[in-house]
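Appendix C reproduces, verbatim, an entry submitted by the partner laboratory led by Prof. M.T., so that reviewers can inspect both the input and the predicted structure.
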Amino acid sequence: MATTYTLGRQGSIILIWNGNRIDIQDVTDFNVHQEVRVQKVSPLNKPPVEFNTPAGWRGSFTVDRGNSSLDDLFNTDELAFWNSNTISSGVLYCYIQESDGSTSKFEYSGLSLSFSNAGKFTAENVVSQSVTFFASLRRAI
């Protein structure tokens, strides 16, 4: 039976960093939300008015570690910063298979990344890694 709701397995992400596609295997979680700046006007002679202005997008993703690609990415970025004061950048693409058969595509640009969890290694458990990010802009493509 087909469902009209979107399931997590209908989404996928692709990370392009410094012009290279990063092989992030087995993404188990992807979370993103819009950030806004609350603007408020308080006129003396009428009720206050509040509205939001866009202030980027913040999110995270988790992978079950299948290779060293994230370790390599953050190692390279850290060395580039300390050796030549280089700040790396990239783009994140999100693809969602819709229930009508179409695909929604979003590009997150102006990306900065943080390796929020490089992994916990225990004898009998899969190692999970987490990345948090900020994107200046999201656009449908």
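The chain has a mean pLDDT of 92. Additional entries are available on request from the coordinating office.
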